[in-house]
Each structure stands twice: as C-alpha cells, then as structure tokens.
Design goal:
elongated, mainly alpha
Length: about 50
C-alpha cells in the first residue's frame, strides 16, 4: 500500500489494496467473514428457525 502511494498511484487504486487488507484483518480477528463462508453456513445449517 505504501509503495503504491510512494509511486504516485491514484488513491482509488490504493484504496482497493487497503480494503482487501482490512477485510483480511477482519477475518483474522473474527470481526468479518467471507461471503462464501456465510453462504455455506446458511446452506448447510438451519439458522434462525
């Protein structure tokens, strides 16, 4: 990310990397889950009934 900023990349491109890093950090800490995991959970288990 910082290398992209240092290289003068447009901020919207740097933001893509920052968002991906934020999502991965959320997966590590348990604050976020990938869509595939949520879809799999709801397809295999009867949640909320």
């Amino acid at each position: 990310m910082l290398s992209g900023i240092d290289a003068g990349m447009p901020i919207d491109l740097v933001q893509i990397d920052m968002t991906a890093a934020w999502d991965k950090l959320g997966e590590i800490t348990g604050d976020a889950a990938p869509d595939e995991l949520i879809t799999q959970l709801f397809s295999q288990f009867c949640l909320g009934k």
